[in-house]
Amino acid sequence: DLSKGIDSIQRCLDQIQIALDFVIQSRFADPEKIGIAGLSRGGLIAAFAAADEPRFRYILAFAPVTKLSLIKEFHPIQDV
Asked: Could you tell me which of 58, 20, 65 has the C-alpha nearest to residue 39?
């Protein structure tokens, strides 16, 4: 997607925002105790989401991707 100019990371962050709004509005979660977690690439996305959304009070990232250039899908993209 990134090589085609599609920002799939932002699309994912937008979906996370919609889900977060839903769980808070539906009172499924206490807005003072909401966290986000992810594994590998999901850990990277969780970090982006937590940085973008102050309602996430906690973050847990299992083996988060921290260097995109090591992921084969990013090899064709310059300046990663």
From this structure: 65
